[in-house]
Write a structure and sequence with these properties.
The chain has 2 helices and 16 strands. By secondary structure, it is mostly beta strands. It has one domain: Beta Barrel (Porin).
Length: 335
């Protein structure tokens, strides 16, 4: 996006389009900590070792309110599995203009998709869906971990009784977490979501920006649609995401897309079962370049944040005969 001034003005106008109000809140900081450990069996060809214990995450979180209108959040992971090291995960300051309007600045998850926004401690399956891990997690120049540095405005709208909408819009560097900007092009991400009573949600995501590779730069865009239903102890959720890289006349455009669908049910208190189907086409220009997976889930909750789950993944990669099934046992606890 070459001229960011109109976008920034839009965000400010959106945020301050309603009168601010104050409320009395507890300003004492709240502390949290969680850890996640896995046991993995990977039956892929030439996988050595094919069994492994993993200490995936040890996260420390501080949240609170500096004033009734200003809140903050800081999170660090002392064993981030994706980076194999300690990492500052996110930190932001939020200004609540009123109950419907918020401004946030710092490093945090950009508003793209639905599964993206689910905190690690509440995620149902051991591994993210292929399309989330390969598109949504990596938006921007050198993105990763679904996070970036920037400013976000959000606005809730009450449309009718029981039906509401929320728009989130963010301008970000597009260089990933803990990274300075790498060009003068800022990236833009937005999500428009609708809530129907307490049982259904529908959302639309959009991203536009620049992607820098070793020798060339391309225009990058991504689009997504998400839908979810909740009824008693049953949850159904699905997303479709598509990304497009445009290289002008240097090389043909690259298009990839994928989806996931899952259903999770709690037949009894503390017991959860589920199934997920997900598929990701790495490149529309290459035949037989899709990876797909069927995941079965069974879990037991000690509390709403502490649980043990078993995942079995039936995997199929059209481009590699070596990818075989995987089983993952997850142990997690949080306070």
């Amino acid at each position: 996006m070459k001229n960011m001034l109109p976008v920034m003005l839009l965000i400010v106008m959106l945020a301050f389009s309603a009168n601010a109000q104050t409320s009395v809140l507890n300003t004492a900081p709240q502390f949290g900590i969680w850890n996640m450990s896995n046991f993995v069996f990977d039956n892929s060809v030439d996988k050595t070792p094919n069994t492994e214990f993993r200490f995936s995450s040890l996260r420390f979180i501080v949240t609170g309110n500096a004033t009734p209108e200003v809140s903050y959040h800081v999170a660090a992971d002392f064993n981030d599995e994706s980076n194999k090291k300690s990492i500052f995960k996110q930190g932001w300051i939020m200004y609540n203009v009123n109950d419907l309007v918020q401004l946030r600045i710092g490093q945090f998850k950009y508003p793209f998709g639905k599964e993206t926004y689910t905190s690690l401690i509440y995620q149902k399956f051991a591994n993210p869906s292929y399309v989330l891990g390969n598109i949504a997690a990596k938006l921007g120049n050198d993105g990763g971990s679904y996070r970036d540095i920037g400013i976000e405005a959000s606005r809730k709208l009450i449309l009718t009784e029981g039906i509401s909408a929320e728009l989130k819009a963010m301008v970000m560097n597009g260089s990933g977490p803990n990274s300075p900007d790498k060009n003068n092009q800022k990236d833009f991400v937005s999500h428009l979501g609708f809530q129907f009573k307490d049982f259904a949600q529908l959302g639309f995501s959009h991203y536009t920006g620049k992607a820098n590779f070793v020798t060339i730069t391309s225009d990058e865009a991504a689009y997504g649609t998400d839908i979810a239903f909740n009824y008693n102890s049953l949850t159904l959720q699905a997303e479709y995401i598509k990304s497009v890289y445009k290289y002008d006349s240097i090389k043909p455009d690259e298009i990839s897309s994928g989806f996931y669908f899952y259903g999770v049910w709690m037949p009894k208190e503390k017991i959860e079962v589920g199934v997920r189907l997900d598929s990701y086409d790495r490149s529309k220009a290459i035949a037989e370049d899709t990876i797909s997976r069927l995941t079965l889930l069974a879990g037991y909750y000690f509390t709403n944040k502490s649980k043990i789950t078993f995942n079995y993944e039936f995997r199929n990669d059209e481009s590699s005969y070596k990818v075989k099934d995987m089983a993952v046992v997850v142990f997690q606890t949080a306070i």
